[in-house]
Each structure stands twice: as structure tokens, then as C-alpha cells.
Amino acid sequence: MTTSFQDDKTPVLWKKFMMRRNEIVNRISNQLFSLQIYPDNFTPGQSFRKYALAEVSDFDNIPNDFDTFELESGKYLVFTYKGKAENGPELFRYIFQNFIPENQFEVDDRPHFEIFGDDYDPNSDSAEEEIWIPVK
Predict the structure, then answer these.
(1) Cα–Cα distances in Å, from 64 out to 51, 60, 93, 99, 131?
(2) Grouped pLDDT means (10 residues each) for the chain, 136 residues
(3) Which of 4, 104, 119, 120 would you call most buried, defined as having the most Cβ atoms within 10 angstroms of its Cβ?
(4) Nearest to 5 by CA among 112, 79, 121
(5) What residue segments make up the domains of the chain, in order of their start?
(6) Which stretches of 24-127 are assigned E, i.e. beta strand?
(7) How far apart are CA 4 and CA 122, in angstroms?
(8) In sequence order, what are the beta bridge partners of 107?
(9) CB neighbours of 51 closer than 8 A, spacing ≥ 6?
């Protein structure tokens, strides 16, 4: 789905996906992936592609109207976040405005993603997710 930070369609995407996730019969774990592909020289006002994903053993048994995605390997910074999803932007600001520049990392032009369990509740204070930021 194409979305933006200003017109965030993430809840719509995940609602559609979660209603049909059990149709994916070859899942290899209960982990789910929220993946973003940002355009070159991305600024927060731009639109980007967002995916709701599950890891599968192969692409043979994917429901017909589902897309497949193969993640390219590479180096990532990984952060663990615990709390409501609505408070996530504060952590992302810290990562991109402080942590990355202060530690002299360079963000790579590959997908960014978060990993969480099948029972993830974005409104819970105890919700946990891993945040993966691609770096060079």
C-alpha cells in the first residue's frame, strides 16, 4: 500500500492482512513484518510503500491476490521498542536525529522493517517490536 506519515494508512493495511493471515498456510513462525520502502532522498512529507508480511517457507502456496517479497540481506541496526505504537515516532526521531549521526552510521537504501508477534497489540503499553534500520 502507498502511504505517508501525514496520511498514515497502516491500520487499514494491517486490518486487511490480519483478517486473511490464516490463509497463508506455509508460515514458518508467528512473527509478522511491517516493511517500508522509502524513495531516494526521502523526507517525512513524501509517500512510500508499506507492506504487511509473514515469513514463509516458499512462495508455492501464497493466496492468489497476495504479493511476494524477498528481503535483500545486509547490515542493520536493531532496536527493541516496548510501548504503544503511537509513541513510536519519538523513538524514530531519536534514532535518525541522534543515534545514527552521533555514531557515524549511514542509512542504506534498502527496506526498513519492524518485527512483532502475531498477538501484537499496538495499543498496549507492553507491546514489543524490533526495529530494523538498514545501514552501510
Answers:
(1) 16, 10, 38, 41, 29
(2) 93 94 92 95 91 94 90 95 90 94 96 92 92 96
(3) 120
(4) 112
(5) 2-134
(6) 27-37, 47-56, 76-82, 112-117
(7) 18
(8) 135
(9) 1, 13, 33, 34, 35, 36, 37, 67, 69
